[in-house]
Amino acid sequence: MFKKLNLVVVGQLKQGLGQQACCHAIAAALMIGLFPIMGFSTLMNTFIAAYFRLNQPVVQVCNWIIAPVKIALIFPFLRLGEWLFQANPFRLSLTEFSTRFFNDFATTTAEFAWTFAHAIAGWLICAPLIYGVIFRISKVLVPKRLASHPSRVAE
């Protein structure tokens, strides 16, 4: 049993270590890490990394690094979504909303479903641009020799 677990863990550590794969992992993780609904990006990144065979450690590290930026971008994504749908602006502070959300999850979720939809729509509009910019930047920053010697990186 431990041998199987070891094979899975080692496989995840070695998977996707070429330059191209690392750049895709970084771009995808940072883009999805900015998803404006708290608590979903880790799960989304895990599934995306597994589906596209991206390096899980790279994806998860990038996901956690981008978390403070995610918090800062929630309202800009929300405002963009509200503008797209010509909706009335969300007027609660993040503190008030968090208190209501954690006190009564179901009611708050139902009451603010359109607010969540507006934030997600704003993120969806920006996501391709975010991915493209991060991918191009990471192509410059991730060394090409990583692709030629992936076994050294995993050792």
Structure description:
This protein is an all-alpha fold and 155 residues long. It has one domain. It has helices spanning 2-14, 19-33, 41-51, 56-65, 67-85, 94-103, 105-111, 113-141, 145-148, 150-154. α2 (19-33) runs antiparallel to α8 (113-141). The longest helix is centred in the C-terminal third of the chain and has 29 residues, at 113-141. It is globular and about 50 Å long.
List keywords for this structure.
single chain; 155 residues; mainly alpha; 79% helix; 0% strand; globular; disordered C terminus
The DSSP helix count reads 10
The proportion of strand residues reads under 5%
Mass-distribution shape: globular
Number of extended strands: 0
Cα-atom radius of gyration: 18 Å
Which structural class is indicated by helix and strand composition?
mainly alpha
Average pLDDT level: 85
The helix fraction, in percent, is: over 70%
SSE order in H/E notation?
HHHHHHHHHH
Describe this structure in a few short sentences.
This protein has 155 residues and is mainly alpha-helical.
Secondary structure: elements and pairs:
Elements: H1 2-14, H2 19-33, H3 41-51, H4 56-65, H5 67-85, H6 94-103, H7 105-111, H8 113-141, H9 145-148, H10 150-154
Helix pairs in contact: 2-3, 2-4, 2-8, 3-4, 5-8, 6-7
